[in-house]
Amino acid sequence: MSDKKAMGRxxxxxxxxxxxxxxxxxxxxxxASAQLNNAAALNLKPVRLGFIGVGIRGTLLxxxxxxxxxxxxxxxxxxxxxxxERAQELITPAPAITGDYKGKEQVFGFFAQLAERAGGTFRxxxxxxxxxxxxxxxxxTTTGQRQGKTLSTNGAQVFHVQGGKVTExxxxxxxxxxxxxFWS
Length: 184
Known about the structure:
Layout: H1 9-25, H2 32-35, E1 47-52, H3 56-66, E2 71-77, H4 81-88, H5 103-117, E3 123-131, E4 135-146, E5 149-162, E6 165-173, H6 176-183
Parallel strand pairs: 1-2
Antiparallel strand pairs: 3-4, 4-5, 5-6
């Protein structure tokens, strides 16, 4: 066993944010990429990160992580839309097709965009449907081909229904990374 003491997540966040804040206040902050030898021919598997809470401290941590070789920021969550919009700029690759689509025209436009980007190969095949008066869940397989890449993922689509009309829908793929890679 090692004599080193393990550092918990909370301790790591506290210490790293204090160091980042102190360096910024002292004017000595350098981009994280300058702190690492990104020119070295290292073949590292990417480290994919998601951040929950991207206010001031979270954005500082995201910015520092974005400059580290081999780090990909894939997701951000926050209760405040302004924080989330600021954080979206640091997500790699930036989500090209995500967003809120409202009304039939925007929703059908979204699916048309998927079909166009996949050269007409995008398919959403329904495996099964479960429903009650307020919810519909469709188990689906999504496939497509694009720029030499192939997509084949399973997922669940949850539809909220009020008065016989869909009011909201959520898409839950089984492999979000595969979808991000395919659409990027």
